[in-house]
């Protein structure tokens, strides 16, 4: 014999019927919210277009490539029109395009002050630092591509591993066997010697010079202008040990070292820090010759 009261059975039956009604209502509300979001997005896009119509804009043609997405494996160029303001750089324009139009647009950047070297790209047919390049100095459409002669990872990002390997090959750090006697005494450098190596210390490892070098493009083992400049910075420093100087010169004298340079000056032309790379390479050639001269 059941002990459940009739009114309890009726309440439970009503609750069971209300459940699908509630779910259906929630679905209707979700669709309503979705339509409202779409209307807001459309309105914002229209407002952005209207705002752009009243502003001076720059036309960007940006290289796109994504090997992980089926529809984007084929390289292409996307067009973006960004509002211009005085002092706007290429990096500013790229960031606006990413933040406003396409969040999947991928590129490297960091300090935005031409110090980190992370945003070197191929802009209007020339290697440039995007954070240092003014839009007003460029002709439209501004064509932005990844650095040539490097494997593209995604969009404007290239694989820099080979470049870093070449830099490390010259052992870019001090190695000396002539330390000061006092524990807290520093290694002193003359003003003249500092002036000699000053420009070479400005390298920010951006890779622009390596990308512009035709020799590096055809010879994957060539050290390249950036690595040779880094070797110059330590070889010419009077605080460097003689043994290490000799070792560096032996590295530079190899088949894929300084003698592969054909003095085209392309690296010097594109260097964003105005380092006289070609001159440094030629001076190291002279040092290599003197190092092998024997008088007896």
TrEMBL record:
Domain Succinate dehydogenase/fumarate reductase N-terminal: 59-164
Biased composition (Basic and acidic residues): 35-46
Annotated stretches, region: Disordered: 1-49
Organism domain of life: Archaea
Necessary cofactors: [4Fe-4S] cluster; [2Fe-2S] cluster; [3Fe-4S] cluster
Residue stretches making up the 4Fe-4S ferredoxin-type domain: 201-275
Matching InterPro entries: 2Fe-2S_ferredoxin-like_sf (IPR036010), 4Fe4S_Fe-S-bd (IPR017896), Beta-grasp_dom_sf (IPR012675), Helical_ferredxn (IPR009051), SDH/FRD_Iron-Sulfur (IPR050573), Succ_DH/fum_Rdtase_Fe-S (IPR004489), Succ_DH/fum_Rdtase_N (IPR025192)
Coiled coil (UniProt feature): none
Keywords linked to the UniProt accession: 2Fe-2S, 4Fe-4S, Iron, Iron-sulfur, Metal-binding, Oxidoreductase
Pfam families: Fer2_3 (PF13085), Fer4_8 (PF13183)
Molecular functions (GO terms): 2 iron, 2 sulfur cluster binding; 4 iron, 4 sulfur cluster binding; metal ion binding; oxidoreductase activity
Homology family: Belongs to the succinate dehydrogenase/fumarate reductase iron-sulfur protein family.
NCBIfam families: dhsB (TIGR00384), PRK05950.1 (NF004616)
Protein name (Swiss-Prot/TrEMBL): Succinate dehydrogenase/fumarate reductase iron-sulfur subunit
The organism's taxonomic lineage, starting at the top: Archaea, Methanobacteriati, Methanobacteriota, Stenosarchaea group, Halobacteria
């Amino acid at each position: 014999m059941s002990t459940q009261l009739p009114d309890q059975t009726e309440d439970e039956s009503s609750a069971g019927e209300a459940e699908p009604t509630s779910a259906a209502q929630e679905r209707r509300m979700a669709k309503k919210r979705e339509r409202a979001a779409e209307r807001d997005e459309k309105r914002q896009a229209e407002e952005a277009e209207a705002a752009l119509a009243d502003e001076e804009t720059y036309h960007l043609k940006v290289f796109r490539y994504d090997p992980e997405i089926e529809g984007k494996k084929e390289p292409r160029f996307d067009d973006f029109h960004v509002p211009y303001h005085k002092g706007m750089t290429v990096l500013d324009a790229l960031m606006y395009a990413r933040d406003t139009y396409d969040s999947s647009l991928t590129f490297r950047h960091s300090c935005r002050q031409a110090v980190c070297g992370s945003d070197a790209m191929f802009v209007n047919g020339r290697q440039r630092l995007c954070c240092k390049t003014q839009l007003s100095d460029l002709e439209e459409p501004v064509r932005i591509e990844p650095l040539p002669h490097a494997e593209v990872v995604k969009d404007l990002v290239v694989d820099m591993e080979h470049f870093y390997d070449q830099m490390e090959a010259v052992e870019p750090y001090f190695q000396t066997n002539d330390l000061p006697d006092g524990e807290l005494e520093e290694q002193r450098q003359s003003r003249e010697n500092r002036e000699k190596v000053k420009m070479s210390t400005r390298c920010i490892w951006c890779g622009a010079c390596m990308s512009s070098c035709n020799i590096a493009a055809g010879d994957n083992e060539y050290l390249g202008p950036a690595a040779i400049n880094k070797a110059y910075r330590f070889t010419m420093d009077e605080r460097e040990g003689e043994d290490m100087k000799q070792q560096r010169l032996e590295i530079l004298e190899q088949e894929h070292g300084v003698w592969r340079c054909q003095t085209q000056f392309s690296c010097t032309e594109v260097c964003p820090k105005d380092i006289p790379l070609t001159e440094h390479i030629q001076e190291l050639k002279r040092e290599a010759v003197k190092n092998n001269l024997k008088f007896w």
